[in-house]
Amino acid sequence: MPGRYRISLLGLLVVSACTGALRLKESVIPPYKLRGETVELRCDFEKENSSIYSVKWFKDDEEFYRYVPRDNPQYNIFQRNGVKVDEGSLQPNRVVLKEVDFNTSGQYRCEVSAEGPEFSTVIGTGSLLVVEPPTAGPVITGGKEKYKVNETVDLLCTSSPSRPATFLSWRINDRPAPRELVMKEPLYVAKDGLVTQFSRLMFVARPHHFVRGLLRVKCVAEINERRMAHHPTIPETFRAWERSFQASTGHRVLPPTYFVLAFALSFVSR
Hints:
Layout: H1 2-19, E1 23-28, E2 32-34, E3 39-46, E4 52-59, E5 62-67, E6 75-77, E7 94-97, E8 106-114, E9 121-131, E10 139-141, E11 152-158, E12 167-172, E13 175-176, E14 182-189, E15 195-204, E16 214-222, E17 241-248, H2 256-269
Parallel strand pairs: 2-9
Antiparallel strand pairs: 1-3, 3-7, 4-5, 4-8, 5-6, 8-9, 10-11, 11-15, 12-13, 12-16, 14-15, 16-17
């Protein structure tokens, strides 16, 4: 009987410890924010019968916020690059960062620790990316109003500044341009961190490029899942922008059989 009593008492202590354990209900770290906005970071916990020793927040493993109920003052803020804590809205489970910039982007972690004898710690993590969408569509330069067959078409597409950089793609007569015709130019990064992307399209105009005497080229600038693959949602402001270019042959439209024959002759002569 005494042995059974000790086992039952031990089981009761284990259950009591579990029911009174510190528990993390939810950690809220937005996947993205627009530059200049305010972001709220939350680490919602249930202490139940536990006593909280500390609540800490880290950015890229560097601590920037600490709450210790037994200290005076209870809150401590540590200066970190890109982290501007709104000290007027401090709460044990809530931190507000104001005027976020590109340096605010990073990995965030909250740690909630209980006092003894439990000494348990719960952790919440997440990634925050500060973004700025393009404010205008791309610009196509280098084109002419008219092209002759076998003349070189050389176009440059320039994106509107953004962060992250836009992805530029070309379409010729509503079909994706072959990769071998597209050259990615070095991007430009401004002092404020915004990125301008460049893409060059170069090909020799053949008869099949002209549909009813017209050559239609389009440059599309977008920020999609490939650019933000580790984020579950994409800002609605990151819509795709398009800019079209159109040129003519400057000649009357000839039957399709003529274009096929002309292309075949030009191919043989090479």
